[in-house]
Amino acid sequence: MAEERVESQGFYEMLWDCEFCSTKGLLAKSQRHCPECGAKQNSDKRYFPPEGQEKRVDGHRYEGADRYCPACNAPMGAKANNCANCGSPMDAAREVKGVAAPVPPPRPRRKLWPWLVLAAAVVFALGFGIWYRFIRTKAATLAVASHTWERAIEVEEFAEARDSAWHGSVPYDARGVSCHREQRSSRQIPDGEECHNERHDKKDGTFEVLKKCKTKYRSEPIYDDRCSYTVLRWQTSPADSARLSGHGLTAEWPALTLPAVGPQPVLGARRAGKRSESFTLELEGGQTCDVSEAVWRKYADGAKVNVEVRASSGKIVCSSL
């Protein structure tokens, strides 16, 4: 998160209106009494001046918030020992109230709760329907009809392969390397600032304007060399893979006869690669489940198995085996 820079733009006078003679727009710092009728200032009635009509307080030194006189309730400066209005000591005087900076009125919101209730009801009904139709299960007993299996061995061939990589990742044995410039990533570059002013009531008859700025950033592309090349690697040859399948509990690997490969394979050399296998239980009604070898060997042909099935369709839940 970008760090915010704060800069003071100076101090300005708050305003207040006289409650007795209705004189308006009096200066809260320099006019502690109404010049028309002499009434003392009510600090609770202070307010920010309109934009463009602020009066700057040059050389102002903030000493703290005003305090209410305990005897006459007149606002006095933070360093006053006695009230200038009635002379009462300012011991244990409390701070005057502050004024929050004005904020734009929020846009009127439409009432959303009826729509939220309706949406919740629809989601609940839909969820219940999915559960009832597709998820709900019941217990059943099915017989194992047969066992089937399939095993495969991939064949790998040492052959030329085309590939591409960033320049720093090109293999040492690559041949026919051809590179071009391409955008690899991007970085954020400072590009000026976004600023706004905020008013803060200092509670001594003035307010301070603070300029708050955050750095703006722009995205700048980072380029690198993207290279295409040819390299000799072991590659899977699906057409030459060996497969074997059958029924019963005796699973075998397919026979695969390949010439031996030396420590330095030559172009066109072949070898046995990854092995894979699958085991399937077929139950009465033609339903099948692909399971682990341990589960597959657990049940004999004709054995009765307690399982879970979908209540609506009768389809077996294979994980219950």
SSE order and pairing:
Layout: E1 4-13, E2 15-16, E3 26-27, E4 67-68, E5 75-76, H1 113-135, E6 137-166, E7 175-201, E8 206-236, E9 242-247, E10 270-283, E11 287-291, H2 293-298, E12 304-310
Antiparallel strand pairs: 1-8, 2-3, 4-5, 6-8, 6-9, 6-10, 6-12, 7-8, 10-11
Notes on the protein architecture:
This protein has two helices and twelve strands. It is mostly beta strands. Strands 1, 6, 7, 8, 9, 10, 11 and 12 form an eight-stranded antiparallel sheet that branches. A two-stranded antiparallel ribbon has the order 2-3. 9% of the residues lie in helices and 43% in strands. β10 and β11 (287-291) form a beta hairpin. The protein has helices at 113-135, 293-298; strands spanning 4-13, 15-16, 26-27, 67-68, 75-76, 137-166, 175-201, 206-236, 242-247, 270-283, 287-291, 304-310.
